[in-house]
Write the structure tokens for this entry.
Amino acid sequence: MNRLAVLRAQTREWAAELRPHALEVDRDPDAVVRHLGLPALSRVARLQIPPQYNPDPLVLDGHRFYLDSAAERVVFLEELAWGDLGLTLAAPGGAMAGVLVGALGSPAQQDWFFDRLLSGPGGPTWTCFALTEAGRGSDATGMRTTLTTRGDGTLVLDGGKRYVGNAVRARLGVTFARTGTGPLGFAAVLIEPGGPGSPGGPGRPGMRGITAEPVPTIGLRGAQLGALTYDGVEVPPERVLGRHLPASRRGMWGWVRTFNLLRPSVAAMGLGIARAAYEYVLDHRPADERLDRIGRRIAAVRRLTARAAEAVDRDPGDGHLASAAKVRAARLVEDVTRECLDRLGPGAVFDHPLLEKLARDARGIEFMEGAGNVQRLAVFGALQRGQLALEPA
């Protein structure tokens, strides 16, 4: 068995342990603290951390896994999303913020972030990744959050973010802000919102001027999406990610490469939900052509997602397949969950609460890591540049 197959087999076992708690955490997101000892969640918390900061990688059949590649992340996250995506996203750990810090942070910034991430007495703390804004989505060109410089040289963060996973729980995070006009006028900033700190332990005081509040959602309730508000938050200059890099790499160029690394993971989450719905219906109805067609679509998007992960691992700038995979997976999961509910009849939303939850969670994939039109523009750009060839009809 190759190393990714070994990872998939073990993760699938752990994911099955999440499923019995999915509806409980959907009803009460705070219930997640009762399940942080499950292997899936404890491993999520300690992975996606660079090897130099992680003395405890996942070791399976002699293979070491840090989840520091897109290829590993898509296997791991598809299986955990099959178990329950809400619980998976509710886990402490570096997650998306850690990937960004690993890609753009200086050695000193990485030390600061990962030391705090892992220093809690109860284990790794929660983090957040704050990009989306109310009325603006994840469109960076419309961003209103600002990082300005006062006359005395102090950096000040103002504005706010919305639909931020673990916003109320997080003690650490990354937020994005405008510093000026044009593609170089952006910054990624390390923040300390406060939050409860490590699981089971008190949080440290956050940066003055940051407030967090939960936002009611239809799906992915375990992730406890929230809103962060910044009111005159003073930011030490050393908390601006990538200050050691040329200006061209601190702006949009650096972000795009990082987001390319993350998009296959979002596609994998959609795949996991779609597969969970498909297999649920197979357990309740005999297979037919309609269900076989769903199975073939899932397999096709899995192949595309794997190719996308391999592409960005080779070159983080090669993101058109990642965008294509994200678009396809978002459409797939909505189609599949809707069709599976229909397959079980008009009373399915009442008679099959787990399937109904999967359908609600599915809607969140569209809005994670850039909505569909953002991804379509990326694919179109690749086509214009000759990076993507159209096959004859």
